[in-house]
Amino acid sequence: MTGKIAYLRITVCILLLTAVSSCKKDVPLEELNPVPHAVKLEVPDNFPAAEKDLDNPLTAEGIELGRLLFYDVRLSGNNRISCASCHRQDLAFTDGVALSTIGISGKMLDRHAPALFNLAWAKTGLFWDGGSKNLESQAFGPLTSADEMHQDLLVLEAELKHIPDYVTRFKQVFNEDIKSANVVKALAQFQRTLISGTSRYDKYKRTEVGASLTAIELQGMNLVNSKCKACHSGELFTDDGYHNNGIDASFSDEHEGIFQGRFRVSFNPNDIGKFKTPSLRNVLLTAPYMHDGRFKTIDEVLDHYQFGIQISSTTDQLLYQHLGQGGIPLSQTERKAIIAFLGALTDHEFITNKKINNPNP
């Protein structure tokens, strides 16, 4: 009797092991080895098509990892500064100051923090002088700068490897251990999804139900089209190019030529004093203005273009709109109309979008 019981027990065990084994075989492969899910950019209908980045394809998991990193102070050497410290969502991812001193050194930076949106269309370089070719390489600048985040990349890797959630996420997204090259890839994926295209102007252009612009806003739109569109062109309101807009007549080579604009990168004398054209979208949120934040208000910007053009050998010919002289003539009525239209370019949905805000407030 005892032998039969033992035999039955062994048989039952074998059957159970077989059943467990069968269950494991039935588990989908993707659950055992989860792969990231490809994502297509949600491009507004009135926008141009966005090119895919074949070297860093978007995935849902990669975007979310980038979002976590963007708001994580551990990316800085002192664990106090995140990317979001200088790029606030409520200010269209700018910081609201002319030249920041928030960096680890406490030193005032030489350039104003640019807005971060519609970067999937930035194909002629990043930074005010185009010194970086893409978002991936751009991220290394502030990460390692002694006056900004001042992070040792090897220390960053080691620090992130002590966080189990990051280890899991990097493994899923990139199928390898945490590396600084993948940190910037994840940040770039997140930033490419920062698309601002739901302003009142956009809804008007797409003829959405109930969308409209006032008479003065329409007048301002026509004025921008006639007087500003050469540089602030298309639905992105930037030509993604570089121009000397007459804010200076001379350009010092101090600080490694940072005041010489595009010339610092191209070494082409025709590029002296040229800086990247910012978008007019969300412009009422992104004060102060210019690459060094010298103008506090839109009125000061208009004053510059009307009365303050400085002439140099590379001053853009597009600015000679006043009987062949430098400057863009504007009446007070026209100025008010332009400012009214710029208000219609403010994207309130973008600056309150919970999908791109701090996941750990």
Task: Describe this structure as you would to a colleague.
Mean pLDDT is 91; it is low at 1-8 and 10-25. This protein has 2 domains: 60-197, Cytochrome Bc1 Complex, Chain D, domain 2 (Orthogonal Bundle); 200-345, Cytochrome Bc1 Complex, Chain D, domain 2 (Orthogonal Bundle), CATH 1.10.760. Strands 1-2 form a two-stranded antiparallel sheet. It has helices at 2-26, 29-32, 60-70, 83-86, 135-144, 153-161, 164-174, 180-192, 200-205, 215-227, 254-257, 263-266, 298-307, 332-344, 348-351; strands at 242-243, 275-276. Helix 3 crosses helix 8, helix 5 crosses helix 8 and helix 10 (215-227) packs across helix 14. By secondary structure, the protein is mostly helical. 36% of the residues are buried.
Strand-helix topology:
Blueprint: H1 2-26, H2 29-32, H3 60-70, H4 83-86, H5 135-144, H6 153-161, H7 164-174, H8 180-192, H9 200-205, H10 215-227, E1 242-243, H11 254-257, H12 263-266, E2 275-276, H13 298-307, H14 332-344, H15 348-351
Antiparallel strand pairs: 1-2
Helix pairs in contact: 3-8, 5-8, 10-14
Organism: Pedobacter hartonius
Domain Di-haem cytochrome c peroxidase: 61-207
InterPro entries: Cyt_c-like_dom_sf, Cytochrome_c_Peroxidase/MauG, Di-haem_cyt_c_peroxidsae, MauG/Cytc_peroxidase
Short description:
The chain is an all-alpha fold.
Q: What is the helix/strand order?
A: HHHHHHHHHHEHHEHHH
Spatial separation of the terminal alpha carbons: 68 Å
Tally of distinct domains: 2
Major sheet, described briefly?
2 strands, antiparallel
| Count of runs of 4 or more consecutive helical residues | 15
> What kind of assembly state do the chains in view correspond to?
single chain
User: For this structure, what is the CATH homologous superfamily of the largest domain?
Assistant: Cytochrome c-like domain
What gyration radius follows from the Cα positions, in whole Å?
26 Å
Query: What is the annotated CATH architecture of the largest domain?
Result: Orthogonal Bundle
Strand tally: 2
Shape verdict:
globular
> Structural class of the secondary elements?
mainly alpha
CATH class of the largest domain: Mainly Alpha
Work out the helicity level: 25-40%
